[in-house]
Design goal:
The complex is a heterotrimer.
Chain A lengths: L4 H20 L17 H11 L1 H4 L6 E6 L5 E4 L6 H10 L21 H12 L17 H11 L1 H4 L6 E3 L2 E3 L7 H10 L14 H13 L16 H23 L6
Antiparallel strand pairs in A: 1-2, 3-4
Helix pairs in contact in A: 2-5, 4-5, 4-8, 6-9, 8-9
Chain B lengths: L1 H23 L16 H27 L7 H26 L5 E4 L5 H14 L6 H20 L12 H4 L9 E2 L16 E6 L11 E5 L19 E5 L11 E3 L11 E3 L6 E3 L5 E4 L11 E3 L5 E3 L20
Helix pairs in contact in B: 2-3
Chain C lengths: L1 H11 L2 H9 L2 H8 L2 E2 L7 H20 L8 E3 L11 E3 H11 L4 H28 L8 H24 L3 H15 L5 H8 L8 H33 L3 E2 L9 E6 H26 L5 H4 L18 H9 L5 E3 L2 E4 L2 H27 L7 E2 L6 H20 L2 H8 L3 H51 L8
Parallel strand pairs in C: 4-8
Antiparallel strand pairs in C: 1-5, 2-3, 6-7
Classes of the chains: A mainly alpha, B alpha+beta, C mainly alpha.
Amino acid sequence: MRIRARHIALGLVLMLVPVGIALAQPLSGIVRPTTEPPRPSLHLGAELFAGNCASCHGIAGAGITSPRPGAGEVLGAGPSLHGVGAQAADFYLRLGLMPLTSPQDEPTRERVLFSDKEIRSLVQYVASLGSGPGVPRPNARSGSLPDGLRLFTEHCAGCHQIAGRGGFVTGARVPPLQGLTATEIAEAVRVGPYLMPQFTPKQISKADLNSLVRYVLSTNHPDNHGGWGIGNLGPIPEGIVVWWIAGPLLIGICVLLGRRMRS
Amino acid sequence: MRKLWRWLVALITLFVGKLMHRASEQEDEPERIVPAGRPERRAETAVLILLAIAVAWAIGFVVTYAEFGPKDIPNALLGICLGMSLAFIAAALTVVAKRLVVTEEREDEYPEEHPQEQSEVAQIVHESGSRFTRKRLLIGASAATAAAFGAAAITPAASLGPFWDTAALDRTAWRRGRRLVDEDNRPFKAGDVETETFYTAFPEGADKEEIGSPVVLLRLAPSTIHLPAGRADWAPHGILAYSKICTHAGCAIALYRKPTFPAVEPKPALVCPCHYSTFDPATGASVTYGPAGRPLPQLPLMIDSEGHLRAAGNFSQRVGPSWWNVRESPT
Amino acid sequence: MERQGIADVSDSLDPVRFIDERTASAPLIKKGLRYLFPDHWSFLLGEVALYCFIVLVATGVYLALFFDPSTAHTVYHGSYRPLDGREMSAAYKSVLDISLYYKTGLLIRQTHHWAADVFVVAIVLHLMRVFFTGAFRKPRELTWLLGLLLLFTTFLEGYLGYSMVDDLLSGMGLAIGYGVGLSLPIIGGPMTQFIFAGPFPGGQALWSRMYIAHVFLIPILLAVLIGGHLALVALRHHTQFKESRRHTNKRLIGVPLFPGQTPRSLALMFGVFAVLFLLGGLIQVNPIWQWGPYHTYDATNGAQPDWYLGWLIGALRLMPSFDVTIGHFTLVPNPFWGGAAFPLFVLAVLAVYPWAERRLTGDRTMHNLADRPRDAPNRTAFGVAFLSWVFLIFAFGAADRILVLWNIGYQTQLTVFRIGIWVIPLILFFLTRRICHDLSAAERVEAIQHEAEEEAEREHQPAPVGGA
């Protein structure tokens, strides 16, 4: 019997199934109280915090500066949350940046592990730890697009690339900025997660922030007047197009018109 | 008008007549050079159809241009019209090449060497010089003349730029006492500079585009700063200023890496987005990663009585990408 | 009598006669029409490059009518909202207007840019064909050299076109060029000051220079080089593959220029035009309006030059951090290695290769027959290794995007590439040589088998003896 490509493919798929199952499991399980109240509450927030956040952020968010073993085998370390306010908690939790598997990891936008109700509870709880900024409510429509591009060029393009396509800063991957809500963008500017600087209202005023948010939102649908935007990155995709689209097309025309070797 | 028309008819008649005349003469034509082949009426029809389609696309292009205004004209439609017209012309020509034109394979000789002509050329050159007696001297004189005139001929080009002069590379607008301003010319106050972020500052009243002008301004906790010897008072209240132009290849240092939780995250750093040279602002912008070969030049700062930031002198080193001899201190 | 009259009139209408009477060129024309082209698809790649050049000239002339090579400050108030009210150079504004205001401007501009990108692709493919078939050997070394010169002049031409626009990416590219220029030992400082008419970013004088060089001096140089390249090809004829006993080093077999080759070349030309204009219409290239104007103090992450200079970016990023110094004196700044020494080394290797191969193989004869890659295992292996070395350095130029896309650490990539660029070419060298030898050996076995079969068949046939 001949082994067909189909069989090989099937074999490969079967081999990958256990890997898939393993990956589908949450890396660190969320600890939940046995019965959750039907509505968000400070109490639920405190419980969730104690179960899922305290091993890094310390009891009552006091912070742990020198790593020490926390829940599970995780070596916990994390900044104090006193005074960070609802803004930071909302930002990290809504985007699924927290909780981290290990405090050394770069927070990345993965799946959100908490439900909306749980997030509200946690945000309430973190906000109660010390007076801090609330969740910003930017009004992108009142912002100016030209100002936004100018501010973005000055403050953001160095890391996030001029069209918000992400990039690299020594030691970290800079995320692309598409698919974010206005609130999330504004929070990121004010919070300055991970290795990002933090921009206070003194440096970027509320009006400027509206403009900035408006520009970042506009990168979801950049003005691709010239056709297929190929990622709005410039030369790298362009090189791929000439080698993998134009090149084969032209070689094809040559083969059509010329003769192949007689053997 | 009518006269023109008559001329045209006459010319066409003549031309057709000429063709008929040729055709009738065919019997006594010499042997063919291009081999004969069967007529291919279907291929001809295909060519005609393809050309007609090409014409339609070309007209489409003109119509598209005329129909739309500058704001809403679809670039894709223009490109498709022109591109398809060209593609169908190419297709028509392909049919001509493959089906209508006789395919002949002929032989020819590759060109050989010409020993006879080679020696004759040499002979001509040699004999032409037979009346010269002081050949070497003349050749020397010609060479000298060519060199001298050549030098004279390219001399005007020296006006193009500073000739063998790099003095301009050392110039910056920074002087002791010059205030630091932002992009909108507002002066920086020491109290404005916050720790978690970075700023771009320029010398007041100077051209911002000069590579000696822009500096990155940031503030670190004074306890974390370890500047090279002799710079003890360059960073009042932990406020530091470094040239914003990378010492590697001249891009702007537009990245400030600022850890949120310094205990486990990488240290603060200034990074160039072109080749990712990385500098440590706490230690005089020494290179910690990437290809740059020397630190960013540091600008000494002071705070005046009104709390404004001012330069306390020029940079610690020459600004911009490195070049031969660059490590000397500024002049 | 009447017949005679018609003949007279019509003869004066005969264009061939008209031309020959005035130029005495009928024999030359006849020879030209029957000039033979050996027929193989890979011999058409050079033509593709030629047709790209034609598109570049045609679209370039159109763009030059709208482009304003001026650094004068203007304020933009055009249709592109995000730049409304921004201060910018007249040069950048004129390209914005070409792209977004004049109706066919964007199509022509994009086609121009794609044509430049494809031009280099075609030259590189053509160069690879010539290299791997040994078509650069005597008597065609000069053609090879002119081709190389053409390629490197094209890099400069493309770089200037990219830099003149004065958008954020082009300004950063210019800054890097300035940095590389400065890094040249001894002459770097004075030379860049001379070329830029002072320190970066230059100013009006530099723009006038880049413009005249991009639209006049270098295109003329390219045209002259192309002319010389083609003249040399025509004088010596193309190489051909040894496809039969009739193909020899002395005898050329091919299709005449007219009628056989002409419609094919024209079809190829229009095919190239079609591809370029379709690209220009359908795929966006360098959307300069999205980048915004350049200032020396602004930068965007992962700035890149056009693809054909990507190998230099890769080399600049791969280079470990050091300046060659004595005490406080810098002798060789870092960008010199990746930005100047590396491309010059590649050029030098390619330029001396025909002579090096002659020296190493001792083969000094004329070659009109092209090798198949397997026929010259050492050359093929060297070519693959050398190309892969350049390609790997080139590929590292995209490490930052690889990180964003697939989250492979930059430092990991750096380490892998720093080792890989030396190890992989070495492996490929031996692997390629092995494959070439095996292919040739397989062919020999096949030939022997074929011969044996023929012999066997002959033996089976009834002996002709005694038949008569």
